[in-house]
Amino acid sequence: MILVNDSLARAFAIGAAIALVRFRIKVAGKFLSAALFYGVLAGMACGVSRVDLAWLLTVVFCVSLFAVFQLRRYAARKAAAEAPAPKSVVEIRAETPSKPVGDGMTG
């Protein structure tokens, strides 16, 4: 609302700019589209002479991105710690019943 300053035309211009950039560039992941969104917002803030708001957006984005990456690393470590240990070759061979060699069609 701070960037729009109660101007409907500016609100539509911001939406159109984000849509144009979003559909012109093929975005591979969620994080890249979030970075693109925050980049456009920071640019718009600088364009209306609100550099303090642009810095605030940048800091919020960086802190949230750091938190998400740390949470993903923690979740990956926790999942790896809870996963069962792989079986050794000797255990696998001991569990497999011996089957006769052949296609089973011959008598």
Describe this structure in words.
The protein has one domain (8-83). It is 69% helix and 0% strand. It is built from four helices and no strands. The longest helix has 32 residues, at 51-82. The protein is elongated and about 75 Å long.
Features:
4 helices, elongated, mainly alpha
How many β-strand stretches? 0
Query: What is the gyration radius calculated from CA atoms?
Result: 27 Å
Mean pLDDT: 75
Task: State the distance separating the first and last CA atoms.
Answer: 82 Å
**Biggest sheet, open or closed, and with what strands and sense?**
none
Q: Count up the domains.
A: 1
* DSSP strand content: under 5%
Question: Secondary-structure element order, as H and E?
Answer: HHHH
Oligomeric status: single chain
Structural class: mainly alpha
Unreliable segments (pLDDT under 50, ≥5 consecutive)? none
Question: How are the secondary structure elements laid out?
Answer:
Elements: H1 8-24, H2 30-47, H3 51-82, H4 89-95
Helix pairs in contact: 1-2, 2-3
Brief summary of the model shown:
The protein has 107 residues and is mainly α. Helices cover 69% and strands 0% of the residues. The chain is elongated and about 75 Å long.
